Amino acid sequence: MAALARAFSPLIPTDFMQLLILTAALALLVVFGYASGQRRALAVAGGNPRLLHSLPRYHGHFVALWCGLPALLVITAWLVLEPTLLRLLVTNALPAEMADQPAERLALFYNEIRNVARHGHAATSDVVADAARHYAGLRQTMFMAVGSLALALAMAGVVFARRRVSPDMRARNRVERVVAVFLVASSTVAIFTTIGIVLSLLFETLRFFQFVPVTEFLFGTSWSPQIAMRADQVGSSGAFGAVPLFAGTLLIAGIAMVVAVPLGLLAAVYMAEYAQPRFRSVVKPLLEVLAGIPTVVYGFFAALTVAPFVRDAGAMLGLSVASESALAAGLVMGIMIIPFVSSLSDDVITAVPRSLREGAYGLGATKSETIKQVVLPAALPGIVGSILLAASRAIGETMIVVMAAGLAANLTANPLEAVTTVTTQIVTLLVGDQEFDSPKTLAAFALGLALFVITLGLNAIALSIVNKYREKYD
Amino acid sequence: MNKIVPQNSFKIIARALSVHYGEKQALHQVDLDIRAGEVTALIGPSGCGKSTFLRCINRMNDLVDGARVSGSLTLDGQDIYDPAVDVVQLRARVGMVFQKPNPFPKSIYDNVAYGPRIHGMARDQAELDAIVNGSLEKAGLWAEVKDRLADSGTSLSGGQQQRLCIARAIAVEPELILMDEPCSALDPIATAKVEELIDELRENYTIVMVTHSMQQAARVSQRTAFFHMGKLIEVGDTEQVFTNPREPLTQGYITGRFG
Amino acid sequence: MTDTAQMAAASSARPAVQIIAARLKRRHAAERRFRRTGLAAVVVSLGFLAILLFTILGNGLSAFSQTYVRLDVTLDAETLGIGDQRSADALASANYQGVVKEALYKRFPSVQGRVEKRELAGLVSSGADTDLRRLLAADPGAVGTTHTLWLVADDNVDMAMKGYISRKPGADGNRLSDRQLGWLAELEAEGAVVKRFNSILFSSGDSREPEQAGLWGAVVGSIYSLAITLLVSFPLGVATAVYLEEFAPKNRWTHLIEVNINNLAAVPSVVFGLLGLAVFLNFFGMPRSAPLVGGLVLALICLPTIIIAGRAALKAVPPSIREAATGLGASRLQVVTDHVLPLAMPGILTGTILGMAHALGETAPLLMIGMVAFIVDIPASPLDPSAVLPVQVYLWADSPERAFVERTSAAIIVLLVFLAVMNLGAIWLRKKFEHRW
């Protein structure tokens, strides 16, 4: 197998190729298991499938499962454990003076070893070269061991399961039970994701609060995380008052809503009440294109076109506008949000019962009177809900503000100045060097937790409003 | 089949009125005259075109995509489908009460005041109050709601809601009121009250009502028109239609052989 | 008759009709105004879209061509610094730049002095030697011969040829000196400067030199990431949708799962990036910047989309089909796999494609897991460090060179084309398999 992998190595890295070959071998075994189970079932039934409790193909599935599942479990476990195990073994084998380095230095050193071993970087010293050889050897040995174990298990599985094939065996029920377990397990992934988000955010946030008091974070009005980078000042410096970030986020999201709500709502009204079906069938998807454009494109558009335009326009009016003004970022974010407001509002507007409209028309109301005085008030809760959903979108939006909003934390309500936002800071703090023992890096997680809680809260409120509204007309 | 009557006593005159919804023809060449100051009942099995006819009178069919109307339909001698006719004005003259009570999700007062407000019929608050109170009184609802005018219209019972809708319609001072099965969603007691109200309203308004219930048609109407498969089969005094129908189809429907 | 008379009398006493008529004009004007406002909102929104696309196309289309300069290059062994050696190693590390420079000096023999020579060498990309290296690697015997080659021009020359940099001598802030402009004009006059299709853009990885920077590394990275995303999120998403729609009892647990999925759909994507950083990188020690991790994070992001679309598609399959199959003695799972799932598959696939399109455009979470590194090599596996298309856009957007504005826009065009193809595919799928029960 190793030889085969080496043959392809100019094209594809050996480690990846080996894994591919192992997977392919396993897949072949599974297919073979399936076929042999099916054939075996037919054989034990004397060629008459009616004598079997389950169809031959279920016996095939049964054998295939016994073949593939244990092997897959072993490989998965190895994939998860390998990095930890390797690190442990390699660092233990290092010369004592190397192994006694502080944890961070050791981690860097280990990283170097890995790069030499896996990506062919040039070794800077003999120790590294030796360790890298050790690393590569260990890795290869472990892979061969695990690979052999997996293949052996797969073959044993086929033999074992084949023996159990008999006319009375309830192969279908067994296979279905495995599938049921898979279905239930899949559905819990969503739960685990949420738990993972909450735990990872919470864990790092708690560590952050060991450096910075909660009250300073929540109520402090000064934000300058950069100072904390000096090693001798860890924990004693750097300002982590997040109020300017929240204010900046609100300012930009607010501008976005000022743009998106009237445009989106009016567009939704026009589409739902006035537009001809032909017009609607063309324009509605076009509007939704606005929501499908990647946010990084909006960010580029904001930085390249809108921000200079806003600045020049301001200069013509005699106003001084920052080149990364909140107005430019908010404006572009507003454009992005339009379809969220319009399509959700369109849904709630069309959900207003026809009878209400007819009631108004029957009294001689014009269309606009009916819309303004009957339809929109009746749809108001749903519209408020959709606006809240759009607001939560705006608050969580990252790329536009990363590319078009500022980095300096100004506490201002002036849309012509540059402000920074929660998401901008998360990205800024985490792009580049990450030190998980400095409040600078950990602050990103605290901000992330705040963002998570705020958007979740907004969504919960919005959804409950929308749902109540639906119940009313269903 | 109609008696010869001077034309000016007819509020509505339909001649060869046909309605198409897309490919489907819903109304075939209907000739029907509606007398002023009477209750005319339109009866017939579901899908027979009676509601379609009703909705032609205030051009509610305009709201349906692909609906086409041909023939002539006049209100006081004026063609309803003349392009010069303002639909808003027409609907102010021709009120409508719907099958299901459809009060706006506003207060009782605002429901009734809605029409007068959009049409600018009250010069001040006192006048508007007078219109609202008067309409609620005429609809026989005043006694029940006078202490809770600020409550939502949807908080009323079904029968009260329907009478609220009638009050809402008469607040605009229409000449003609169209009722599309106004009692079909109501219980018998509420139905009785609404029927009583219709009988009272006859003194001031011309009423055209669609009904599924032949008993109701017999109880409240003076004239009855029977529709079948989009065609007008027979029209005459209610008593005559129910006791001595001229057409076998009418006879069959009334005696319950189909419906 | 008398009723009519009464009515007429009543009308004249309280002229409701006249009152109404008096206000009609104003009300109809208001109606038209409102209608026009609505139309204006639609037009303005679409106008934004048009401006956006126009800006991107206007800036980016020119990046699909690249300026080349024709030179007679002599592969002199001495200049190459290889002496008599012809081994692959020696050829690989030879001084190709020197050869290119010599060719330029020979073309403009009057140029003397270090500053002038440096300016002259600046006409051709510092990465123009790749073609030469390839030529010699294929045929080591070519040392000593002279070839007429089209070499990639420097980005400033390229920008000047495309009209982004003024070619007027002495213009303020010119990136090209007057001398360079003169040489360029001379070359152009003899037809030694052309614009050709920019194949580098579609074959190279990133580079600090705009004219050498390509998208291919990012495209491959995106393909790897999306493949991982699809492999993970499609089975999980479909299984979850099937479980919730077909098997799950209506109890608190399933309600919890449903609420969870709806909430996940609303969590800002940057938070998923934090999850990826904390769990995949720090906890499991997976490689930074790798499409594997990017794909996993994107899978979690588009999982709710697939589940929600899958459930809707399953819900749309009428119960009568389930009843019919159950009535024939099929087990619950057989009903699902044999009947319900095939019927719901177009809907599920449509949702999956839309989820994938979303994942393709996602940037912020990938920044968290280190996919912002400057990576020249084309990734050979999902474990190699790599960029993806939207991250490449972000990286290039940050670069100061004028030529990168053009390339950023070009990268966006490529990204949008991918997205358009995926979305059209979804629409086609929906149209083709649309069932009306």
Overall description:
- The complex is a heterotrimer of chains A (474), B (259) and C (437).
- Chain A has two domains: 2-169, no CATH class; 239-470, MetI-like fold (Orthogonal Bundle).
- Helices cover 78% and strands 1% of the residues of chain A.
- Chain A has helices spanning 2-8, 14-44, 56-93, 96-99, 103-119, 126-164, 171-211, 214-219, 243-274, 277-292, 295-316, 326-351, 354-362, 367-396, 399-404, 422-430, 439-473, and strands at residues 223-224, 239-240.
- Chain A has a two-stranded antiparallel sheet with strand order 1-2.
- In chain A, α9 (243-274) runs antiparallel to α14.
- The longest helix of chain A is centred in the middle third of the chain and has 41 residues, at 171-211.
- The radius of gyration of chain A is 31 Å and the shape is flat.
- Chain B contains ten helices and ten strands.
- In chain B, β1 (10-21) and β2 form a beta hairpin.
- The radius of gyration of chain B is 18 Å and the shape is globular.
- Residues 1-7 of chain B have low confidence and may be disordered.
- By secondary structure, chain C is mainly alpha-helical.
- Chain C has three domains: 2-61; 64-203, no CATH class; 216-433, Orthogonal Bundle (MetI-like fold), CATH 1.10.3720.10.
- Chain C has 18 helices and three strands.
- Chain C has helices at 2-13, 16-60, 77-80, 88-92, 96-107, 114-121, 129-138, 155-161, 178-189, 216-247, 252-266, 269-283, 291-316, 319-327, 332-361, 364-368, 389-397, 402-432; strands at 65-74, 146-152, 193-197.
- A three-stranded antiparallel beta sheet of chain C has the order 2-1-3.
- Residues 1-13 of chain C have low confidence and may be disordered.
- Chains A and C meet through α2, α3, α7, α9 and α10 of A and α2, α10, α11, α12 and α13 of C.
Task: Give a nutshell description of this structure.
Chain B is an alpha/beta fold and 259 residues long. Chain B has helices at residues 50-57, 87-93, 108-119, 125-138, 142-145, 158-170, 188-201, 214-220, 238-243, 248-254, and strands spanning 10-21, 24-35, 39-43, 67-75, 78-79, 94-97, 176-180, 206-210, 223-228, 231-237.
> What's the end-to-end separation of chain C, in Å?
56 Å
Total count of helical runs of at least 4 residues of chain B = 10
CATH hierarchy, class of chain B? Alpha Beta
The low-confidence runs of chain C, each spanning 5 or more residues with pLDDT under 50, are 1-13
Q: In the residues of chain C, how many domains can be counted?
A: 3
Individual helix count of chain C: 18
Task: Give the strand line-up of the largest sheet of chain C.
Answer: 2-1-3
Q: What does the radius of gyration of chain C come to?
A: 33 Å
Query: Residue share in helices of chain B?
Result: 25-40%
Question: How much helix, percentage-wise, in residues of chain C?
Answer: 55-70%
CATH superfamily of the largest domain in chain C: MetI-like
Helices and strands of chain B, in order, run as: EEEHEEHEHHHHEHEHEEHH
Summarize model confidence as the mean pLDDT of chain B: 89
Largest interface: A-C, 98 and 94 residues
Give the beta-strand count of chain C.
3
